[in-house]
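REQUEST FORM: STRUCTURE PREDICTION
Request ID: SP-0412
Submitted by: Lab K.M.
Chain count: 1
Length (residues): 177
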Amino acid sequence: MNALLHNIKIRRMKTADVDAVIEIEKAAYGDHHWSKDSFLSEISNELARYYCALDENEKIIGYAGSWQILEEAHITNIAVDPALRRNHIGEALLTAIIDDCYTNMVKYITLEVRVSNTAAISLYEKYGFKSFGTRVGYYQNNNEDALIMWTENIFYDKFKLRYNETVEQLKRKINIL
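STATUS: Completed
RESULT:
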């Protein structure tokens, strides 16, 4: 972990954050990234929940988003400044989404992830996501397949116990404000 990064703050994304988010989006995804208008649309969508991670200087260092529809949430994206990856920022953002699902009584969480993104897949598995198939040629830039991942009902004791233990481990590594 980067010795300089001890504390991060997670909060809801604001319109004023979008330019900084776009810079992370470009760095993370290259030419095939979301547009500014896409993020502005998401922020104003009542089904969408978007978060920013900020460092101790209030600089945006990552973001994540999901849609919540009835009993399901779909994680749309999680991205971290490439220079700060492996500092548990993406993990903290994932917990913000899961905590929001608990608050809003959302039972199931799903996402797609590139089959080559082993770091992300490992993170999702750590938090109880399981693979339920692939979407062939899902990513338009290179026709890479997407792994479809789901949680079981997050209100089941088995899931909650694992989640709480994993969050406690995370809190020993980084302070989330």
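NOTES: The longest helix spans residues 89-103.
Reviewed by: T.R.
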